[in-house]
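RECORD TYPE: inverse folding
INPUT: structure tokens
STRUCTURE:
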């Protein structure tokens, strides 16, 4: 593996890295999305630092406590390590929608905080997620973005450039190919001309 750099790939958790199971903090129910492990291995092998950034309103809503989220983070980090993947960080917004925080995606605060903690240059980094709130957070933070277009986005509000991904694809492996320059994916602009 190459030495640590100041660039990272920020990855959404639910629906991007692991199969979406609402409010799940049970490690036994964690299942990687197709191509996730292979994609993360490719990114690690090319020197990219991997950081999960996730909205977890279940804490504020009383569905689980902060310790349950810590246990989930530990289990996820261990599961990835067993697959040969180094996860450098895991940062979660525990607030509910409407709480007015600056860390809940689509706000960029979570990425900005993670970049500060890990010494990341956001202009050299990427955000990969499965909904446009992930894209908007990444763009507002100064990252390039990839939308995993897997049917999870329910509000296709493209009224602001912040919500238009630089690229889109279907798996984390394809996203890793885009980030590393091994694959070109369709942008939303390309799709509109098809």
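DESIGNED SEQUENCE:
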């Amino acid at each position: 593996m190459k030495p640590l750099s100041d660039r990272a790939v920020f990855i959404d958790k639910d629906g991007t890295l692991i199969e979406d199971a609402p409010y799940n903090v049970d490690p036994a129910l964690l299942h990687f999305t197709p191509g996730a492990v292979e994609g993360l291995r490719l990114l690690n092998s090319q020197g990219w630092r991997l950081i999960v950034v996730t909205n977890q309103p279940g804490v504020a809503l009383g569905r689980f406590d902060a310790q349950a989220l810590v246990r989930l983070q530990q289990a996820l980090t261990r599961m990835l390590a067993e697959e040969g993947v180094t996860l450098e960080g895991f940062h979660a917004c525990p607030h509910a929608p409407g709480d007015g925080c600056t860390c809940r995606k689509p706000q960029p605060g979570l990425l900005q905080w993670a970049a500060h903690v890990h010494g990341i240059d956001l202009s050299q980094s990427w955000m990969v997620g499965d909904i446009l709130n992930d894209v908007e957070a990444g763009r507002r933070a100064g990252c390039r973005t990839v939308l995993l277009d897997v049917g999870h986005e329910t509000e296709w509000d493209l009224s602001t450039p912040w919500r238009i991904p630089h690229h889109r694809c279907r798996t984390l492996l394809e996203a890793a190919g885009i980030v590393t320059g091994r694959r070109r994916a369709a942008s939303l602009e390309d799709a509109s001309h098809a």
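NOTES: The two ends are 39 Å apart (CA to CA).
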